[in-house]
Write a structure and sequence with these properties.
Blueprint (H helix, E strand, L loop, with lengths): L1 E3 L6 E3 L6 E3 L6 E3 L6 E3 L6 E3 L6 E3 L6 E3 L1
Parallel strand pairs: 1-3, 2-4, 3-5, 4-6, 5-7, 6-8
């Protein structure tokens, strides 16, 4: 599933399957779920959490926290 955030801060949570999560602008909280996920924070100070599965985390611009 593809999940896109907006220009402001978002709280996005993935599904049990493979997800592509894009935070874009704002200070986002992005959580993958159980599948093999690809998560990109974009601009802002983001928190990315992979969850279960084999995940790819990319912070982007800003001060980001990545939890694989």
């Amino acid at each position: 599933m593809i999940i896109n955030g907006g220009p402001k801060s978002d709280n996005l949570i993935g599904t049990n399957g493979a997800d592509f999560i894009f935070g874009k602008g704002g200070n986002d909280t992005l959580k993958g779920g159980k599948g093999n996920d690809s998560i990109e924070g974009g601009q802002g100070n983001d928190f990315l959490e992979g969850g279960k599965g084999r995940d790819i985390l990319k912070g982007g611009q800003g001060h980001d926290t990545l939890d694989g």
